[in-house]
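>> Question from a student workshop board

For tomorrow's exercise we were told to take the sequence and the ligand below, predict the bound structure, and bring the output to class. My setup keeps failing. Could a helper post the expected result so I can at least see what it should look like? The ligand is 2-oxoglutaric acid.
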Amino acid sequence: MPKLVDQELLSGFHSIMRPKVNCVLDAVEDREIGVGSINGYREVVQRSPNRFDIRFEEQDFESIWGARGSVSDAVPWINIVREVLGEECRPSFSGVVFSRPGAPAQQWHIDSPHETESFCPPHALNVFIALEDISEKAGPPEVAVGSHVITNHLSNGHLNSKHLLYQTSLETSPSHLTKAGEIPKTKKSSMNAGDCLIFDDRILHRGLANQSRKNRWMAYFSYMRPRPNLCRVSDTHFESNTSVFD
Ligand SMILES: O=C(O)CCC(=O)C(=O)O
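>> Workshop helper replied:
Here is what the output should look like for this input. Compare the format with yours to find the bug.
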């Protein structure tokens, strides 16, 4: 969605996000940080080599959106999220993902697994926001169009949720997702600062390689639909209990 975030909100994001990102990265310093949520810290995960995800909390955005945070009526994408997830939708995670120059393309992955064997409407949506222009060279996100329907490991015996979710040696690429002989088409496009990409988080997606000379910055806000048995749904996003500040 082109320019969903205007210049004023972008500036607000920058003034909140940059200092926190720098503070967390300073705390990481020379510590080991492996790839994957369990090998990172509460505040930062290396999603793939040289691609870092710094976690933000709802309170971080109070100065912009007030106490309701990222479900405030002032959030430019909130009506879309409500339409898909329902009025009761809740924020689940937010953060900044940045990739350093030379970061390779991520493996294809989904962010949360299907929860039932038969297809259900989305239980989670991701909103990606380009914080600066992201040229093709800087590695915008890429998605396998329509793949959220066929990433269901519960109905598709040859899929494994671990390989769908994590960066493992057995990447699940679009060509593994055949449905009636069709491989989902992939789509990528450069983004201008303020452009947003909103998607069902069961869709196969990845961040592309950063072949530019600058860090590539993106913010994200993830939302979920409250549902029964939510307490049994495991967190696959930030699994480490260690803090970089300990
Ligand atoms: O860097 C990107 O474009 C996507 C990041 C992502 O999907 C992830 O880290 O889960």
